[in-house]
Design brief:
Blueprint: E1 14-17, H1 23-31, E2 39-43, H2 44-60, E3 65-71, H3 75-88, E4 92-96, H4 101-112, E5 119-123, H5 131-136, H6 143-156, E6 161-163, H7 166-175, E7 181-184, H8 203-209, E8 213-216, H9 218-221, H10 226-240
Parallel strand pairs: 1-2, 1-8, 2-3, 3-4, 4-5, 5-6, 6-7, 7-8
Helix pairs in contact: 3-4, 6-7, 7-8
The structure holds cytidine-5'-monophosphate.
């Protein structure tokens, strides 16, 4: 991921979250999108319904795919799962930082063996968890303290970045190295419905705070014209930032 000084924005910084259960719906949406202007995220629901064949199809259609399966298991198993994701040709894959340093290092080492090497990022603390949830599973300290500790652990384990809230990016940016990247959901263009997200940030504000990639679902996928919704977001971004080739 790019350094933060004089940063320029990736022209495909928008990652469209494909939160569907049916490959027909996905292919209908994706046929209207352009692989030059966005990336795609396949999560647990879609993957469990449609499996690796759908991922391979999206990759074959030219899309960079973030396989958001949040692996969390013993190091050997997570390493094998990450290697399998690399073989599918995905652009990015993720693990839970709570799996620990050895698990993250094993995942990184497995990807280093691959000719096609996806970016490897970590989830720190799920944003659905509050401080009482954390206490219940034995994690003391505030959610933010836990996020910071786990992000630094992910960085030490050689991962490329973390998924985090746009509201956490600023502080993590100051504590992590220049090339450590941030992938942020909870994004809503000005005027868009908030849906079930609690705290949202606009695409431009999230990039200003230091996000590298923006995960955006319903503002694009539920729009009457998904391509127009994506183009409007990209156009706002392009008016505010220089774009890399
Ligand atoms: O439709 P919407 O833009 O809210 O979709 C956001 C996507 O980002 C969904 O795939 C959701 O699961 C994911 N996500 C999130 N908040 C997190 C982590 C992931 O909304 N903290």
């Amino acid at each position: 991921m790019s350094g933060k000084e004089n940063r320029v924005i990736d022209p495909k910084c928008v990652i469209v979250a494909l939160d569907f259960s049916d490959s027909g719906e996905v292919m209908e949406l994706v046929s209207g999108l352009d692989a030059a202007n966005c990336r795609l995220k396949v999560g647990k629901e879609l993957y469990t319904h449609c499996g690796p064949a759908l991922v391979e199809r999206l990759v074959a259609d030219g899309f960079d795919v973030f396989l958001d399966l949040k692996f969390h298991d013993i190091p050997n198993t997570v390493a094998g799962a990450c290697a399998a994701a690399a073989d599918l040709g995905v652009w990015m894959v993720n693990v839970h930082a709570l799996g620990g340093r050895r698990m993250m290092e094993a995942a990184r080492a497995a990807l280093e063996q691959k000719s096609h090497r996806p970016l490897l990022i970590a989830v720190t603390i799920l944003t659905s968890m509050g401080e009482s949830d954390l206490l219940e599973i034995g994690l003391s300290g505030s959610a933010q303290e836990n996020v910071i500790r786990l992000a630094k652990l992910a960085e030490q384990a050689g991962l490329n970045g973390v998924v985090c809230s746009p509201l956490e990016v600023d502080v993590l940016n100051q504590l992590c190295g220049e090339t450590f990247g941030f992938v942020t959901p909870g994004i809503r263009p000005v005027g868009a419905q908030v849906d079930d997200q609690k705290r949202v940030t606009t695409p431009v504000d999230a990039l200003n705070a230091g996000s590298d990639y923006l995960v955006i679902g319903r503002p694009i996928t539920a729009a009457d014209d998904p391509l127009a919704a994506l183009q409007a977001i990209n156009s706002d971004i392009r008016q505010s930032f220089p774009i890399t080739a």
